[in-house]
Amino acid sequence: MRPGATARDEILDAAAELFTSQGFANTSTRAIADAVGIRQSSLYHHFSTKDELLGELLGGTVSTSLAFARTVNDHKGDDRDVLAAAARLHAVVLFDGSQLCNSRWNLGVLYHLPEARARIFQPFMAARNELRTIYGELGRELAAVARSDASLGDTAFRLVESLINLRADGLIAADSASTTADTVLILAGLREELPGVRAAGAELIRRFGGLPELMAG
Length: 217
Description:
Blueprint: H1 7-22, H2 29-36, H3 40-46, H4 50-74, H5 82-102, H6 122-146, H7 152-168, H8 176-187, H9 194-208
């Protein structure tokens, strides 16, 4: 039995496995239906095309992290508080990186498919670009008070997405996401402040992320 509360969830799980293991182009809707144990016609009751399946899977890789990043970005106090600014960026990096590291399938490898640039996937691209924009805003906010590079947010975004390739190569460790978050703060020149930043970032995740298990590592 595949994980999932509904047949739709099971179809998405099967599609995720096949798309990431044998490629999008090489996967047919019949193969997905067979992997779930249903008729192909039953699959079409839930998804009319393979592109629709891909679009939902891609969107799912961003939606949770984007919702968290929006909330954290709106949760601003004193703009001169280095610890608070650092904690916001650290929390977003840790949360987003943990999503990419710990999801059942490494769906991030689908980001660079030529098909992902098609018009039907524009909602996914828009969400990913918004997430990247928030990274940039948080990075500039921290750079202004820590006197670090103003491109810190974009660097953080790229470091998080590099976890996708590390996972594809079998190089992900239990602490990969937390190490990435720490690295961003070290690049900002805040190595000595890391213990306080970690604690404050963990509190943001507890308050707004609903995923306390992400703090492992």
